[in-house]
Design a protein that fits this description.
The structure holds 3 protein chains of 3 kinds. Chain A has 11 helices and 10 strands. By secondary structure, chain A is α/β, with parallel strands linked by helices. In chain A, the strands form 2 sheets. In chain A, strands 6-7-8-3-9-10 form a 6-stranded mixed β-sheet, with helices on both faces. Chain A has a 4-stranded antiparallel β-sheet with strand order 2-1-4-5, covered by helices on one side. The chains are: A alpha/beta, B mainly alpha, C mainly alpha.
Amino acid sequence: MAGDILFSVDELSISFGGLVAVDRVSFNLEKGAIFSIIGPNGAGKTTIFNCINGLYKPDSGVITFKGEEITGLAPHRIARKGIARTFQNIELFANMTTMENLMLGRHIHMKTGIWTGATFFRRGSRAAQDEIRHRERVERIIDLLDLQAARNQFVGALPYGTQKLVELGRALALEPELLLLDEPSAGMNSEEKQDLIFWIKDIQDELGMSILLIEHDMKMVMDISDRILAINFGKPIVEGLPEEVQKHPEVLKAYLGEDESFDSAA
Amino acid sequence: MDMKRDYYEDIQLLDSKVLWFWFIMLIAALGVFPFLSPNYYIYMANYMAINVIVTVGLNILVGYTGQISLGHAGFFAIGAYGTVLLMSYLHVPFFLALVAAAFIAAFFGFVLGLPALRLEGPYLAIATLGFGMAITQVIGRWQVFGGRMGMEAPPLTLFGVNLETDFQRYFLIIPVTFFMTWAARNLMKTRVGRAFIAIRDSDIAAETMGVNLTLYKTLSFAVSAFYTGIAGGLFAFLLGFINPSTFNFFLSIYFLAFVIVGGIGSIFGSIMGGVVMTFLLLELDKIQEISFLGIGQMLAAFSERWMTLVGLPNIASIIFGLIIILLVVFEPLGLYGFWIRTKIYWKTWPF
Amino acid sequence: MFLQLIMSGLSFGSLYALIALAMVIIYKTSEVPNFGQGEMAMISTFVAYTLLVTYQYSYAVSFVGALLFAAVLGVFLEFVFLRRAKDPNVLSLILITLGFEMVLYGLASWKWGADQRDLPFPVSDFDTVSLGPAVVSYLNIATLLITLVLMFFLFLFFKYTKVGIAMKATQQNAMAARINGIRTNRILSITWAMSSLIGAVAGILLAPIATLDPNLMLDPLLKGFSSAVLGGMTTLVGAALGGYILGIIENLFGGYVSLEFKSIVAFGIIVLVLCFKPSGLFARHYVRKV
């Protein structure tokens, strides 16, 4: 499956006060594919994400999205290019409702400014029209993720699994071409994980988004990934198809200890 | 109220008949009030209205965007002096001068917002505090601003009518307050306001979702300063006279107190905070005159014996301080929190 | 002229440094920026005045009495109000201490009115000594010396005493300190007592050269706070240096540029420094992780 390259990372490195967190990591992501990054805790996975969406400035390396270099751009610019993400430890707007959280995801698509926003007074006003239009879009995401019950609740009070979904929904609301998911299944029970796998597939197939995934659940990773990159201590170990990565001796060693295999772990 | 039929109702100001009823009653009451009330209470109403504008404006910054400002007296001063100067020296008509002065305040807010981008907590507090102090110092020392002596407000003419009394000014101040509050409420319900709240709850998530932090943080400062500037401009005419000592550090704290008492992050709370606290401020100032249960006399006697009589009005400061502490400790949502709980209590009564 | 300005800058800088130290000690243990610090010192200074002038006690008794009062006041405020706050954020902490500020200011104004008083002091502000071209009052020298001695003891305290080390532990990780058997609540009380006491020393040293009224500490508090911010709210040495830097710069500006805008320059510097070093000159900047 030789599709177009949507996104690529080339020789990405970053260090913090002498500690090399990411060391010359490279990979390509084809349009419409699911690409997973695996590795033990502290291997530098989230740091790669933080570099991609601009929270950290990498020391060296080039990040390209849709043929355009985006290395070192401010986070909000990268969002505008069409990259959205979720966080390992939920970063929701706790004092907003689910609806409002998702509406914030529409921020870059909306037009209302200070004056029009402050002075709308009827259904036909521009700001009101803007709101109504985008609320309809958000409602579709709420339907897709089965979040109707949480629609008008403050997300701070929602259960953990639901919060994870709201965060996914907020990222979807941005209508990104590339979605970064940082351990989406952490803290979910097995039933919720099943649903999540189903949704991620849906997002890939129906919404046509490409997905970059960090995940610890090996079964899930092996199930849904098109390609996998394994890293340890910030260094790439191997990159390839799931079955290739799964068998790689160094991966087994770094991830599971000497004498185990993924089948017994999963 | 839970049965919404379309998305407009999510953001509508008055989404039920009951609310419409109360809204019309409120307008009627505000319209009739000055005809029935003694002048002092009209003056008080004007004062309250002005403080409501400040509280709403400061709440946008503190409550909604999660920044802190100990320098809003500075913006208040810029609004007051700006309006008066533009009218006295350049003969700009009142409304134009008011809006222009508020824009100047907004500009200063924007500039102050720039260092604020990188500062948090105590660092931001000291930067804004320094700004407020600097403004008072400058206007106190430059002769253009009348120096320590202050300045007199020029005659206030609007559409050919000279507004000389509190009664007349009431019909200027109340509609302006009404408009400003309504606009703030709308703003917070739509895109820009949502971005402010998002920054408060998680700035990292906000920027990865496409919110330009630099722009929106400075914007929040600017909008907040604009509100305070408008209030300051009106305040100059309420007093008829302004001097630098009015705009001191304590005024900034009072403004913060209004926000806290009313309720952080609530427009309705801001209205309550502005009204209640202005009432207290004006009444505590003449605490000796309270005849109820002989409190005034008792306090005076106590002061003579143990404290000093001249210092008695400082009770206001003590009470304000206690109110702030107790509210922050026990009711962080302020009067708005009370209001919500009472509402729930009545809805579910007798359970 | 230059040396003269430096010398009086050092003297004022000492006072700023003391207040900065007082604030940083509290900030480090509990992340509370204490806006009430100034008024706590002001009230304590009034207590010294009352003991000294109204009740005619000796200097030693009056000053020690005032310092004891300051310590008790600090413990009281922390215990009665701050400890009650559930899950406070920076804003509510700032507000609570602003509340202290208003209450104490109101109390002092009520009790002592707006009259301006002079606090007698054993060391004269008028007798001077010449140090090269600079003329310095005995009080200036005393201020500088007392501050340095106090700082030296603070240094020893944090470095070598058990309580000092426990305080440092609490500062760095309250939970871990508690698990290791340190009573963090008691540490908090001690912190507030110490901080309030240091502030009171600043108040008593300032009152003889200023006039004693409820506004005594208003400006010094802001300068002291600015010094702490300038040096970095999390470092004791930084805060003290911040005080001296601010005192000297302010004095030089007042001497050579404009006396009128002397007090504005402090804030100008703060804002400028913070633009480039958001956590102050001598503290490491901390970035939140996701």
